[in-house]
Amino acid sequence: MPPISRRIVCFLTTAFVFANVHSLLSSCGAQELLPRPEESFKGKIGLTYKDSEAVKPQLKIPATFGLEDPPNILLVLIDDAGYGQFGTFGGGIPTPTMDRIADNGLRYTRFHTTALCSPTRAALLTGRNHHSVASGVIGEAGTGFPGYTGIIPASAATMAEVLREYGYANAWFGKNHNVPDWETSIVGPFDRWADGLGFDYFYGFVGGDTDQFHPALVENRKRLEPPETNEDGSPYHFTTDIADHAIRMIRASQAVAPQRPFFVYFATGATHAPHQVPQEWIEKFKGQFDDGWDAYREKTIARQKELGVVPKDAKLTPRPDSLPAWDSLPEDEKRVYARMMEVFAGFTSHTDHEVGRLVDAIDEMGELDNTLIIYMAGDNGSSAEGGLSGLLNEMTFFNAIPEPLDKKLAAIDTLGTDRNYNHFPAAWAWAMDTPFQWTKQIASHFGGTRNGLAISWPKGIQARGEIRDQFHHVIDIAPTILEIVGVELPVEFDGVAQKPIEGVSMVYTFDDGSAEDRRTTQYFEMLGNQGIYHDGWMASALCGIPWDSESPPRDLLNMDWELYHVDEDFTQANDLAKDHPEKLQELVKLFFAEAARYQVLPLDDRKTQRLDVANRPSLTAGRDSFTYPNLIRLPEGAAPDLKHRSHTISARVTLPETGGEGMLLTQGGRFAGYGLMVKDGRLVYHYNLAGVERFTIESEERIPTGEVTLKAVYVTDEDKPFSGASVTLFVDDKKVGEGRVEKSIPNRVTLDETFDVGFDTGTPVMDGYDMPFKFTGQLKSVTVDLN
């Protein structure tokens, strides 16, 4: 394609200006200022109560605002799920709870997300496009451009904030990946924690993913350690735990204040990696995937056509050349990969089961008839972040550390347990996205953005088990809910003028399956992948794929665009770019107009480079010395960055005459990290290179009792990713041990575990001690000095 001309740039600027004027004018149609100004006293004040007239304050319930019997709302969001994964949309994994919702309401076959988790979640809660609310990528990769900071602006109040002002009791369970990395510590700020986004209660984790057996639990703003068992006494699992808490909240809320409807946002950590689930769920699928991903695709599209969620004439898109054919694999690889898929299937099935317990509880309370249930099977397509060979430990993906096959073979019987942070191969993700091309991260094609959606509301939707084919997007959920409840977006919220909702309500589809689409245009962009839908056509420009880190840089302004007539070509199987060049040019220009309008510019295809903390605010920037008290926990975004950096860790302790032991300082755990501890009377430094290699340096002698300063001096070979280092241990100023860390973590120590002083939470950084390994002497302070 030819370079973009000056006229197009001028056109983009004009479009941007027009869009902002249009936005301002549109917002003037809203009716409310929220929160409402305090009303003046309408009674009478005399000298005493005898000659005065009181006015009893009103309960903050929907009836107070003229809303008659608004529905309860259950919004379910599954993580990293493909269109061809759930049985409800023809996948090979039975999902009876989603079937129940669809059979009691509607299936949507052309519903879309943004191709990545944080962006979809921001768009879902606000009803605006992800770049419009500064969430063009996950916050950990944010930059200083308006569409990418990761900071949802005050000008984009969430639907939860609006509903709370009308008397709803709001609770969020599961994953919150909308808190900027530097705001996740004990000092906040808490504007984008759950309560700042409109929820009265939160129970889950803050970040991208978490260990399902040892989650980084947060209740409201307080970090917790998980219990040993679920409420029924079974071994602990995170999805079961959040279901237990959600059920208890709903029952308690209805018991105490039945006048207040509930809004429950149930955002599981599943089926995002790590793929961890009780073994009995894995065994249900033993042997079911031995014929591989190619066969799965063929079987799935046949089921999809039979269900009617894919047209009879739809073509199955071919396997990308970069993914191997199943039949070409050695038998050992087939064994490992089939087992990884069995684990994933059990994880999916278990998740749907736990959602079912929540639906059952609502039914038992007699509230199901007037509960709007929105069940989204994915915030993006299935994840190919396991690479071509799958992973025992997802941290190896984020740090570009290879995992040998023999380690996977040795761990095959422990896949899905807390011993691994496993993720299946990219080709299984491609299979989960049947019948479409590509996967999560790839916003240009439906494999990254097309997700199954089921909606039921018996009181308000007359249809049962019907299919809806209108084109919709995740930004359409918020206006749908607001229309059902009967409220409008305020023109001003908390004193801040509001951006207009950019989504389109889907209510018009509820009782009219043949209704014309009201969403006629939608852009897509993620990590340089570009797409634009308009009036039944889709232009797509693929920039990069998750399992190929060696792809050459692209000219983001002159991509190899593809063209699909998706009204007739459901799966994007027939590229018409050469047949209709004028239509393609029209859509490419429209993409850039929409990009200007919604803060997508500047386009950016960088990945690991954007993970550099220098791109974002930091609590630690400019500091070279950090002193911490005992028993403090910090997320990685608030801890000093010690990666390939020389530093000294000093702990001022008093050891009793009987000796003492325990953790002095650690970051991470079983799947990557480091720790300085007293163990078996000796000073020990351990470095865990994502479980692939481990390095232990231990003092030659036992530590003396009394007041001492214990130190580890880490001297990096160079300030460069993967660099090795020399580590020297000291008691006071006496050298007591030395050794090497031959290779270090380059990008990210942990996704969910914390930087701990005086104890170890989450998982152990090395075997040989029991959690929480609290230091049994007196720990006065720990200082980290950057050298």
TrEMBL record:
What is the protein name for this chain? Arylsulfatase
As recorded in UniProt, its EC number(s) are: 3.1.6.1
- Gene3D superfamilies cross-referenced by the UniProt entry: 3.30.1120.10, Alkaline Phosphatase, subunit A
Q: Where is the Sulfatase N-terminal domain?
A: 71-487
> InterPro entries per the record?
Alkaline_phosphatase_core_sf, ConA-like_dom_sf, Sulfatase, Sulfatase_CS, Sulfatase_N
Please report the organism this UniProt entry assigns to the protein.
Thalassoglobus neptunius
Keyword Calcium part of the UniProt annotation = yes
GO molecular function, a single term: arylsulfatase activity
Enzyme kind, highest EC tier: hydrolase
Keyword Signal annotated: yes
SUPFAM superfamilies in alphabetical order:
Alkaline phosphatase-like, Concanavalin A-like lectins/glucanases
The leader peptide range reads 1-19
Q: Which UniProt keywords apply?
A: Calcium, Hydrolase, Metal-binding, Signal
Question: Family, per the entry?
Answer: Belongs to the sulfatase family.
